[in-house]
Amino acid sequence: MEIDQNACYEAISARDRRFDGRFFTAVKTTGIYCRPICPATTPKRQNVVFYPTAAAAGEAGYRPCLRCRPEATPDVGVWRGSFNTVNRALAFIEDGALDDKGDVGGLADRLGVGERHLRRLFREHLGASPVAVAQTRRVHLAKQLLHETRLPMSEVALASGFGSVRRFNETFQTLFRRSPSSLRRAGRSEVPAAAGGVTVRLRYRAPYDWPAMLSFLSARAIPGMELVEDNAYSRVIDLGGAIGSVQVTQAHDEDALIAQIRFPALSRLPAIIARLRRVFDLTADPEAINEHLVRDASLAPMIAARPGLRAPGGWDGFELAVRAILGQQITVKAAIGLAGKLVERYGEPAPPSATGDARLTRAFPRAERMANDDLQLGMPPSRVRSLRSLARAVADDPNLLEMGRNLDEAVERLKALPGVGEWTAQYIALRGMREPDAFPAADVGLMRALADETGLRPTEAQLLERAEAWRPWRAYAAQHLWAASSTATEKAA
User: Tens of pLDDT along 88-116?
Assistant: First the structure.
């Protein structure tokens, strides 16, 4: 990936926050890499070189700065959304694909590409190998946990994806030339801990429309499983057969969300954090997305009104797919009513010790149970068949609803399931698979938002043709259109 070295130097000289996360500064004389906003004295131009990612700087032999803390950088980059295979690979790495016994060959197989080709793509777009990216992720998470929690060292090592405490200690000695415990003493930026759990900050690039995100999640909150109140979102989570909970609020002192995580298996913490980042769309770069979409005269005022609007994701692909099928041809309120019955009848019980809130009582039903039940919830028989077919397919292939090689392949795979048409497949791809270019063009709300002064709405074909100019960010265009359509409906009412 090519970056303008001279432009980067101007950015660090001005400590321009707009470039935080877009590149990293490596100082040849100290062997340290920093964020563009590092408070240290700006080094001379001949003593610095710039890298597109922290992983690239680390693989080149530089170690993270202890003052500006690269692990606190918003997780965005100019490459996001620009190359599907790299984007998907990073999502798998965030979920731990290269931790424990995972290898690059297995990751390449999941993506449908050759290992050599995948390594070349990482070099081209990120300037680092997949292994280096995974290692940087582990180190950054471990350092964040050292600063922000009181977890014992053995639990920090486990929670950040290191296979052993010995490997954890050796890595920190190599990178920072000091032990993890001494780094903790030097940091002292601890976040107040959640009772019986872990509290971490999840940083993003501003602006971020937190009220809009909460409003979206509140309208779709399933009773007994989700709760939105007091400016916070809480839910029961089920991961790897264990039950826990998360509560997410917005930080008041920086551009970050604060996640309180209660879960019995700390080794699942990286996967939980990765899912939260997808649910709340924390890797989006609103400046880049908005700059592209405002070229459309109809979208421009919508974006000006909501510059921090994000595309909410789903916690789990199966859960999101079930929600989508339940919502076919009925209102959101009616769909949530059906989902509430489904969770109450088939969801896994959540003990109070796992949630800390007596109102959060069940996790979303597992595919295996739904596949073997009659699902009598007062729905049409065709919808019941669709749900059971989906559940059986996911039970047989747990990877069915993960990202594929590309959006078109994912949509065709979903449409092969009974009862899943183009709209449902695109909606699942948008929220469940986090496809930034997914676009359910048949949605009435999208058409209503682009009606002319006489009330005439575009057809699905016309909307698709117009949306070509919005690629590769059609999912964000859809979110703005839905928001505008909802506002217009509320005013009319």
Answer: 888 888 888 888 677 899 999 888 889 99
To the query of whether residue 68 is one of the catalytic residues in this protein, the response is: no
Q: What's the CA gap between 296 and 304, in Å, rounded?
A: 12
Catalytic site residue from 8, 20, 34, 316 = 34
Regions of the chain with pLDDT less than 70: 1-2, 76-83, 100, 186-196, 404-405, 487-493
Q: Using an 8 Å Cβ cutoff, are 347 and 237 in contact?
A: no
Taking alpha carbons only, the member of 266, 225, 262 closest to residue 245 is 262
- pLDDT for the residue 78: 45
Which residues, including other chains, have CB under 8 Å from residue 2's CB and lie 6 or more apart?
none
Q: Which of 20, 99, 238, 443 is catalytic?
A: 443
Percentage of the chain beyond pLDDT 90 is 63
What is d(CA 58, CA 195) in angstroms, rounded to the nearest whole number?
A: 35
Average pLDDT value for the chain: 89
Whether 443 sits among the annotated catalytic residues: the reply is: yes
Strands in 32-34's sheet, in edge-to-edge order, are 48-51, 24-27, 32-34, 63-64
